[in-house]
Amino acid sequence: MNFRKKEMKTTHANELKRNLQLKDLIMLGIGAIIGTGIFVITGVPDANHAGPALTLSFILAAVVVGLSGLCFAEFSARIPVIGGPYAYMYVVFGEIAAWFTGWFLICEFLLAVSSVASGWSGYMQGFLGSWGIHLPKALTAGYNAENGTYIDLIAALVIVFITFWVSQEAKKALRLNNAMVWVKFFIIILFIAVGIFYIKPNNWTPFMPNGVGSVFRGSSLVFFAFLGFDSVAMAAEEVKNPQKDVPKGIIGSIGIATILYIIVTLISTGVVPFAKLQVSDPMAFVMRYAGHGFLGSVISVGAILTLLTVTISMMYSLARLLYAISKDGLLPKQMQKIDQKTRTPKNATFVAGGFALFFAAAFPLQILAELTNIAALVYLMMVSGGILKLRKEFGKPEKGQFAVPLVPVLPIFSVLACIFLIAQFSLTTYIVFAVTLLLGFAIYFFYGYRNSEMNKK
């Protein structure tokens, strides 16, 4: 019974308006991808692992993400139903695989919301610090007794605000998020245009200070920077020509983001010795290091605005995911409740906000990023493997539908690449992930299995 499946719906009653084109998909992908990855994570791996060779880490992560994106594209063309990977797995592997894919997605979105809130806190503290305003150290970051930090107060407050905002003004929040893509471009172009004149090539020597292993380790961390590309695949029902434009949108947004990440990383490590980049607001720090404190403040304000909207988008997605899974009975039905005034799943939003509040306030950014990555890599591995099962049971895509090339070679390579990156994580990450996995088992077997809508069939 654990492998009970939903039927594959090759024809889907689409109630959404198909008005998105390729340019819209690329903007959507870039808007979702470029957030904490470029404004925050680019600093931490530099100082701890890869150094200037972090550019190679980004390329490696982009290859892994690109392979997964191809598999997403075929699924979105062949199974055009709401729910994304959760729905795909329900069709090809059955309920238990669908639940764990949904569970890993919940973990990814939840931890990503918390990570971005933590990164937002870092930029806000840097901005306040430039005006001589400083919080007590105990309230500046997640729990780390050695460093004297216990709770990230600003991250906690921003989660409370975002939860309230998404429960009331979700539609406006998502419109604002799209508008902020242009603000992101302005900030990045400003950083590149100024920073390029302060590069000292000596700072790139040695290019790979900690060896090849550090590049692999760095790629497992910066993988976080590409999360959000799946939003392109999930928009398939609103695209005029999804079979052609969805894969182009995925690869296009990943490609543009990769180029921007590489340029920003080269400038950052060229201006500032990599050992000094262990900061939570690296782009602003680079400007201040170069003697442009005002530009550093401008970048901080821009990052504060854009990171806030990314967090809103992720919270929105997380709440809808909880709502979708609860409709199948695998999570409590209370999360299905729709607020009659705002027409939003308010209960699901508050549940998402409560858990995000705990993680954002209590856990350091790097731990959050690692846990987000391992959860995402596991479900991406399942999606890539799912292509093999999809082809075996339902054959090749119809004419006009996107097809992953070189099956089974590319899906197998995608699975192996995900496993390789998973092998780079720390023991602490494995332990916490194992606890997360056990919790997922407990929720399914003690609640989801008994209350599943499939039982009624």
UniProtKB/TrEMBL annotation:
TM segment ranges: 25-44, 56-75, 87-113, 149-167, 179-199, 211-229, 250-274, 294-326, 347-365, 371-390, 402-423, 429-447
Kindly list the GO CC terms recorded for this protein: membrane
PANTHER family assigned: CATIONIC AMINO ACID TRANSPORTER 4 (PTHR43243:SF4), INNER MEMBRANE TRANSPORTER YGJI-RELATED (PTHR43243)
Subcellular location(s) of the protein: Membrane
Membrane-related topology note: Multi-pass membrane protein
Molecular function per GO: amino acid transmembrane transporter activity
Provide the protein name.
Amino acid permease
Keyword annotations for this protein?
Answer: Membrane, Transmembrane, Transmembrane helix, Transport
Classification via InterPro entries? AA/rel_permease1 (IPR002293)
